[in-house]
């Protein structure tokens, strides 16, 4: 793992919301082809970290480098353009679009045609669109949502909507995925399926940064874990190391579902 | 794929057939005079479908559509009524003439008049409307909901006040004696009784072309980005859509549609007045889009055609503006997603299933 240069370098990332110190000088690296989990109690600052990485709001200080590009200061759409795609803790799907269109939205950064080409329905834009559909269809098959492709997303079950969000992020063929509690709201069966899929993604060589509360899932899939508490990083290491870390056991794992 | 494309354009074919049928009916029933209001409805529909893209599809409410309509109408009203006859030796007229941009014609009073070709003012109208939409859109489209509604309404009010307070725009009287727009050697856009049928077909042909462009857009990558930004702006942003830019572009497209509509209407009517830029006119466009089903260009077209036709025929009498206001209030209260939309059929079916079929089971 350490033989590779890190894909993402997070350096002293810090965030204040008024007087609340939500994230406090957190640093860690993510190496290509690995799965890194960020865990911590509710309100620990995990989603805030994600929002800063993805450009949803700027950090108070600190920086994020991705592929040697400075992400800090970029808007979310630019971050996506760098190949860093996210899902949301509180599902954000487009209810007014079909399943297929939601997933094609994830393909946005891989096509070029603009408004003019769209209005004139140029040959190039049609070829591009057909290619986009061809490229995302395997994802729908993989997630077993092909039959629903023309259904409005709002009519799907919660678990299926989570699948759509995952497919949407994957449609971009991302260099790295940010998954914010992908198992939240899923039943046991769905969670197992998700674990299998994440392992498959890892086998394909994808790099993933994941926030998750389901401890067995986290211990199962992660190469490395970062533990946050009250915005501070209190531990970092392999699942085994984290499971045996006394501070972690005391303030986090001890009291909860581990 | 080809089959999909054919299916996509089926409504266009139906519209073309309906336009033909309506004309035949007026011919047979001897009510050709109705074509005047139907032609004017077409121009209003053009502005309404433009707004439909902004409001229905992209989810950005604009209460200033009449302002852009007025920009198009007044641009050509001013530019094509400047008489260069006595100033032909000047530098600018000579330059324009060398570019074949001047037209000479006899006025109704028997004088000759030399004026700028409306082709030039059409381009000017489109460019000015696009520029205004860009300048207004960049700051204003950062707002959401009623703040955006108020800001765009403010833009509309400014245009209305400028028109009313500027001599060059004819103040409360507007601008009259706008010459016809000669599109082809044998056809012009004007209110001339003899070419009423031609104008009817021309207006709806332009609407059909507009509809084809919009259908294409809706089914394209950019159209999907537009709709996504309505569904979840954060999701669109996170997937790489430059939402700020997308909003400004669709706002500009909507403005250009309105300006083109204002341009043609002004040549058709031979003039334009300040009421075209009023807030009540903007409300009208909004209520047509709402009753048309919001994200539904065909519903907007249908309702725009019917309601404008009835309004222009004077069916609503003194309540003309009130009718559109009431429609808007009712839609907002009872069907905030718009009236004519697919889900309405599901609602009705569910209602029938529950109330009627269930009762039958007992
Ligand atoms: N936009 C915001 N404005 C103000 N405070 C915020 C904002 N976002 C988060 N916070 C606060 O920052 C702290 C960290 O929140 P965050 O959502 O990052 O926690 P989390 O670790 O993701 O928790 P959870 O496990 O519940 O998702 C919380 O106290 C939260 O209330
Ligand atoms: Mg969170």
Automatic annotation (TrEMBL), chain A:
Entry GO MF terms: ATP binding; ATP hydrolysis activity
Recorded GO CC terms: plasma membrane
Span of domain ABC transporter: 8-255
Pfam families named in the record: ABC_tran, BCA_ABC_TP_C
Keyword ATP-binding: yes
SMART domains registered for this protein in UniProt: AAA
Signal peptide as annotated in the record: none
Matches recorded under InterPro entries: AAA+_ATPase, ABC_AA/LPS_Transport, ABC_transporter-like_ATP-bd, BCA_ABC_TP_C, P-loop_NTPase
Annotated keywords: ATP-binding, Nucleotide-binding, Transport
Protein name: ABC transporter ATP-binding protein
Organism whose genome encodes this protein: Candidatus Thalassospirochaeta sargassi
Lineage of the organism: Bacteria, Pseudomonadati, Spirochaetota, Spirochaetia, Spirochaetales
TrEMBL record, chain B:
GO cellular component: plasma membrane
Cell compartments where the protein resides: Cell membrane
Keyword Membrane set for record: yes
Transmembrane segments: 12-35, 41-59, 66-85, 119-140, 147-164, 200-218, 248-265, 285-310, 322-340
Main location: membrane
Membrane topology: Multi-pass membrane protein
Recorded superkingdom: Bacteria
Keyword entries, A-Z: Cell membrane, Membrane, Transmembrane, Transmembrane helix
Xref: InterPro entries: ABC_BtuC-like, ABC_transp_permease, LivM-like
Record bears the keyword Acetylation: no
GO MF annotation, one: branched-chain amino acid transmembrane transporter activity
Record protein name field: Branched-chain amino acid ABC transporter permease
């Amino acid at each position: 793992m350490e033989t590779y240069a890190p894909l993402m370098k997070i350096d002293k990332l810090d965030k204040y919301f008024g007087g609340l110190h939500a994230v406090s000088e957190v640093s860690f690296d993510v190496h290509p082809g690995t799965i890194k989990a960020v865990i911590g109690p509710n309100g620990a600052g995990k989603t805030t970290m994600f929002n800063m990485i993805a450009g949803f709001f700027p950090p108070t200080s600190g920086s994020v480098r991705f592929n040697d590009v400075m992400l800090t200061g970029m808007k979310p759409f630019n971050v996506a353009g760098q190949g860093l795609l996210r899902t949301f803790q509180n599902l954000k799907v487009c209810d007014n679009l079909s399943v297929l269109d939601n997933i094609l939205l994830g393909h946005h950064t891989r096509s070029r045609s603009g408004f003019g080409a769209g209005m004139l329905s140029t040959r190039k834009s049609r070829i591009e669109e057909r290619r986009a559909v061809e490229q995302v269809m395997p994802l729908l098959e993989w997630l077993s949502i092909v039959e629903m492709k023309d259904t409005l997303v709002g009519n799907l079950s919660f678990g299926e909507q989570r699948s759509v969000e995952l497919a949407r992020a994957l449609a971009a063929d991302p260099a790295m995925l940010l998954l914010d509690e992908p198992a939240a709201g899923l039943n046991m069966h769905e969670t197992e399926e998700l674990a299998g899929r994440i392992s498959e993604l890892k086998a394909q060589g994808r790099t993933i940064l994941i926030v998750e509360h389901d401890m067995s899932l986290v211990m199962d899939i992660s190469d490395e874990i970062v533990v946050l508490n009250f915005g501070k990083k209190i531990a970092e290491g392999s699942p085994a190391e984290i499971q045996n870390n006394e501070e972690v056991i005391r303030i986090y794992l001890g009291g909860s579902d581990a | 794929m080809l089959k999909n494309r054919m299916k996509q354009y089926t409504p266009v074919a139906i519209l073309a057939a309906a336009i033909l049928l309506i004309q035949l009916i007026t011919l047979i029933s001897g009510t050709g005079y109705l074509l005047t209001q139907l032609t004017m409805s077409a121009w209003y529909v053009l502005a309404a479908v433009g707004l439909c893209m902004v409001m229905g599809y992209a989810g950005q409410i604009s209460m200033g559509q009449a302002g852009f309509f007025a920009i198009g109408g007044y641009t050509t009203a001013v530019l094509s009524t400047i008489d260069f006859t006595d100033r032909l030796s000047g530098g600018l007229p000579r330059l324009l003439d060398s570019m074949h941009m001047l037209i000479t014609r006899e006025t109704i009073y028997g004088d000759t008049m030399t004026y700028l070709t409306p082709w030039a003012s059409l381009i000017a109208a489109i460019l000015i409307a696009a520029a205004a939409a860009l300048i207004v859109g960049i700051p204003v489209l950062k707002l959401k909901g009623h703040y955006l509604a108020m800001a765009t309404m403010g833009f509309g009010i400014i245009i209305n006040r400028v028109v009313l307070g500027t001599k060059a725009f004819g103040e409360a009287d507007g601008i009259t004696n706008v010459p016809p727009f000669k599109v082809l050697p044998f056809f012009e856009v004007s209110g001339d009784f003899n070419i009423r049928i031609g104008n009817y077909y021309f207006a709806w042909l332009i609407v059909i072309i507009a509809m084809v462009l919009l259908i294409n857009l809706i089914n394209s990558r950019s159209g999907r980005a537009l709709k996504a930004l309505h569904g979840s702006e954060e999701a669109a942003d996170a997937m790489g859509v430059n939402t700020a830019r997308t909003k400004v572009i669709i706002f500009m497209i909507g403005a250009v549609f309105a300006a083109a509509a204002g341009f043609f209407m002004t040549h058709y009517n031979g003039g334009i007045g300040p009421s075209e830029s009023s807030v009540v006119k903007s409300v009208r466009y909004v209520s047509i889009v709402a009753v048309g089903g919001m994200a539904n260009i065909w519903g907007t077209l249908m309702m725009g055609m019917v309601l404008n036709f009835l309004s222009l025929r004077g069916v609503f009498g003194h309540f003309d503006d009130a009718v559109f206001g009431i429609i808007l209030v009712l839609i907002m209260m009872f069907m905030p997603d718009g009236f004519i939309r697919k889900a309405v059929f599901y609602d009705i079916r569910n209602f029938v299933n529950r109330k009627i079929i269930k009762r039958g089971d007992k």
